[in-house]
Task: inverse folding
């Protein structure tokens, strides 16, 4: 039986870390009414996405399984689940804390890591090329948004902040050991 959960493999320190988030203790109030899944864009798109399951796993202390579940990254943070919860469970806030813990444990989807590398390099996640400038113009926007693209002197400041926060190391490519 490979789906058996062994209490010896549960990490209660992980549970406590998730529960440090204000209001996270309300996770224990979830009675599986499925209100959070109702209208969730990811539940409708992805059969494997289940925020109730993620919160139960956090509550049990299933750290390794939860942090390595790629679906924790699928939440769009629309907050519908949190707004619809009759128990006031801070679903999204707890999931964001879980993601933060994952990142601090070196766990991140490759696509997110690539976006992070772009931010470290350019100071903004969306490169501004001619196509993007044309689309912005067509929408009645300035060709260049009010980011480091418009204020290039700020790029060094952004890079310094990312370095101080350690973000540059988090998203850096790991060197292959030979």
Result:
């Amino acid at each position: 039986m490979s789906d058996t959960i062994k209490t010896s493999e549960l990490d209660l320190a992980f549970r406590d870390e998730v529960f440090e988030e204000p209001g996270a203790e309300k996770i224990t109030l979830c009675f599986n009414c499925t209100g959070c899944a109702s209208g969730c864009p990811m539940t409708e798109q992805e059969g494997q996405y289940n925020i109730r399951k993620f919160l139960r796993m956090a509550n049990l202390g299933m750290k390794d399984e939860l942090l390595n579940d790629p679906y924790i990254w699928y939440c769009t943070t629309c907050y519908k689940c949190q707004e619809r919860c009759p128990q006031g469970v801070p679903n999204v806030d707890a999931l964001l804390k879980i993601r933060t813990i994952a990142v601090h444990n070196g766990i991140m989807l490759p696509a997110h890591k690539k976006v992070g590398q772009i931010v470290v390099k350019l100071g903004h996640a969306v490169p501004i090329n001619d196509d993007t400038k044309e689309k912005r113009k067509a929408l009645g926007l300035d060709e260049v948004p009010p980011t480091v693209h418009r204020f290039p002197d700020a790029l060094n400041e952004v890079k310094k902040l990312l370095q101080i926060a350690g973000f540059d190391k988090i998203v850096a490519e790991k060197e292959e050991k030979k």
Summary: Residues 112 and 167 are 12 Å apart (CA to CA). The radius of gyration is 20 Å.
